[in-house]
Amino acid sequence: ENISSSHENFLSSFKFNAINLSTKNGKTYVEDSIAEFFEAQTSNSNIELMGVNSDKINVTTRNGKVQFGYIIGKDIDINTVNSLIDIKHIKTQNVSAVSKNGRIFIENVHNYQGCGDINMNLKTSQAGIKVNMNDMEKRGYKIKAQTTNADINLLIPEITYKNISKQLTNSFVEAESSGYEGFEQRVNISAETQNGDVEIVK
């Protein structure tokens, strides 16, 4: 009873087939790992990844925030409850970030090596979603966003609105960059929340 432990592991600097970390009531922090598959699971605490490079990244927690920094991952899947998802400086093709009662913030996303498209699926409730691409490149954007009791703001130059709907408390927007199909690199974002703003900035 009333026993806790902490582990600090140092791995060799070659690429692993898989890294799987699982704990309860304790923080998981990973720095500079390389693997084909990376998975981390915890509860009632945070998961923080810095410099992780993996083909597929899967992260799950409850009551703890998820923080990503300088990550390379072709397919990224994040799931949490009652907390923040904070993603900064990543290269990816597909990212899914799902929370309940927690804000989703994404900043500075770049294309995974050799992949023309970036696909983001972002979903939460009782909180906002903000994507800031810091994008100086020529990329086309396709956006689908919806919320209730809040606003949708798309700060993207030369964007064409295909569908705008505001019924009672529900707001829905579909939009894409002019000439979207002609861009070599494209960003596709689906953002859904309740009682929180959606803001997407190029």
Topology of this protein?
Elements lengths: L15 E7 L5 E4 L2 E8 L5 E4 L2 E8 L5 E14 L5 E14 L5 E8 L5 E7 L5 E4 L7 E9 L3 E4 L3 E9 L2 E8 L8 E7 L5 E4 L1
Parallel strand pairs: 1-3, 2-4, 3-5, 4-6, 5-6, 6-7, 7-8, 7-9, 8-10, 9-15, 10-16, 11-15, 12-16
Antiparallel strand pairs: 11-14, 13-14
How does this structure look, described?
- The chain is 0% helix and 59% strand.
- The protein is mainly β.
- The protein has a 16-stranded mixed beta sheet that branches.
- Strand 13 (159-167) and strand 14 form a beta hairpin.
- The termini are far apart.
Defining traits:
mainly beta; 202 residues
Describe, in short, the structure shown.
With 202 residues, this protein is mainly beta. The protein is 0% helix and 59% strand.
Q: Which structural class best describes the helix and strand composition?
A: mainly beta
Quaternary structure = single chain
End-to-end C-alpha gap: 52 Å
Tertiary shape: flat
Rg, please?
18 Å
Unreliable residue runs: none
Number of helices: 0
